[in-house]
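This entry is set out below.
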Amino acid sequence: MVTGYSSGIGKAICESLEKSDFEIIRLKSRLEDIKALEAELKEILKDKDISVLINCAGVGVFKPHEEISLSKIKELIDVNLTAPIILANLCLRSLKKTKGHIINIASIEATRHSKFSALYTATKSGLRDFSLALFEELRRSDVKVTNINPDLTKTNFFDTLNFQPSENKEAHILPEDIAKTVLDILAFDGVITDITIRPQRLEILKK
């Protein structure tokens, strides 16, 4: 099961998994609609168990905190943090049966403190800490949990922002790079609990 599958990192992960003979379950409910999400998951889990849950959907905003609308604050918390926590909750019984794997896509911002990123950092660092604590909880049940912290990735994530990665290939990573990392994580005999993926250079373009 993959969220955020329609574009960017999520799309690349789905394509990579399908080439490796995984069957992808694509949720139809909006992540902010908790009741619809719960109903859809219950219906899915009646017929099948899940071996991998990948929480990839994400929303970003980078501006002075007082300039962010309350609806946008709620959206970021709902999509970036609440939805992955709820999906893990709803899928865990199934994942315990399959001795499955939860992979959460956080952000480089979960590992540092940047100007104009207070809200986004709060959601992504919360997701990272949730992943690491959940791994400790699930070790005896053989469910693996991995958190991935991508740095600047060339996707449509930046379409609504006032900056973007430069075109220099050494200054951004590609969605396909993260998809390959996901396959490597799934194939690894142990557990990679936390991994940060970065380009060599830092070059940001202002729009």
About this structure: Helices lie at 8-19, 34-47, 70-98, 118-138, 175-187. The chain has one domain: 8-206. The chain has five helices and six strands. The longest helix spans residues 70-98.
